[in-house]
Every structure is written in C-alpha cells, then in structure tokens.
Design a protein that fits this description.
Length: 182
C-alpha cells in the first residue's frame, strides 16, 4: 500500500496525541500519589469557587462554592482521568501501529484486525468508565459534585469500529483466498 501524505500526517498526529495522553496519565497518577501522601499541601494555589476538573468527558467539581478544595473529589477525578487518558492513549497507539504496519504492504493482517477491534473496545470503554466514575463520585461525594452521563458519540463510534474490524477480517480472508491465483 502506498503511503499518502494523509497517512503520514495521521501517523504523526496519532503518535503526538498518544504521547501527550500518556504524559497526562502519568501526571494524573503522580498527582494522585502526591495528594494521598501530602493532602492539601500537594495542591499549589487556591481553588476558585465552584471549580471543576474535566478529562475526556468526565467532569467533577473539585472546589465548593466558597473555594474550599475537596480532596476526595480531586482524588476521584485524578483516578478517573488517568483511566480515561490511558484508554484513549491506547486508541491512538493502535491507530499509529496500523498505519505504520501497513506501509508498503496490505492492511489486511491478523495484527491489524486485532488492533482495529481493540480500538472499538477502547472507544466503548471510555464512556463506560466515565459513567462508572461519575456514579462512584455521586456515591462517595453526593449528588452536587458530578452529573451522571454517557457520551453516546464515542459509544457509537466504538460500535462502528468494531464493525470495521469484521470488514478487515473478511478482507484478510479474501486476500488469503486469492493469493497465488494471480
């Protein structure tokens, strides 16, 4: 398969986003450890009244309306944010690997079929994990901290990608059937 400028640009962007998401994941985990070890001392600067933190569709209020920081809410956010960022990093990792592995050869390989399927699972897991984290936040912190919601867009895209993985699998079968006939 010939590599187009679009493939190259997508591959570069996928790697950049993947790296940024892994850095974000590590940052969230480091932040969680610091808050667990040092409490409010780990948080630099005062929170704004009603301040919320958000990561990939998961949003939680980390400061009340007086500006007092809620450490439990912050820990729930950092945990959920790390999970969501890691899932999305895996999506972009697989996109990069599919494009890189398909350079100069067929995209219809068992590895690509597996990675496309994984992308679908990861995309479905993102809103599911966000929903679970929202429910956990409501149970631990009360109803005023977060709203329970599901991003149907990512869920639907995940289902579409799972369907595409079946098309890739069929393409792999057809390619194997025709190999040697030409």
């Amino acid at each position: 398969m010939q590599v187009s400028k679009l493939d190259k640009a997508t591959r570069v962007l996928a790697k950049l986003v993947e790296v940024a998401l892994w850095i974000g994941t590590v940052g969230m985990l480091v932040g969680l450890v610091l808050v667990l070890l040092f409490g409010e001392k780990a948080v630099v600067g005062a929170a704004q009244p009603g301040e919320t933190a958000a990561a990939w569709g998961f949003e939680i209020m980390v400061a009340d309306f007086t500006g007092a920081l809620d450490l439990k809410a912050l820990m729930v956010f950092l945990s959920g944010g790390a999970v969501l960022m890691a899932l999305m990093a895996m999506v972009f990792r697989n996109v990069y690997r599919i494009l890189k592995g398909s350079e100069g050869s067929t995209p219809f390989t068992a590895d690509n079929v597996r990675m496309v399927r994984e992308i679908g699972y990861f995309l479905i897991a993102v809103p599911a994990a966000g929903l679970v984290m929202s429910i956990i936040a409501r149970l631990l912190l009360g109803p005023g901290v977060t709203e329970v919601r599901v991003n149907m867009g990512e869920l639907l895209v995940g289902l579409v990608v799972l369907s595409l993985s079946r098309i890739f699998a069929r393409g792999m079968e057809l390619e194997a059937d025709t190999e040697g006939l030409v």
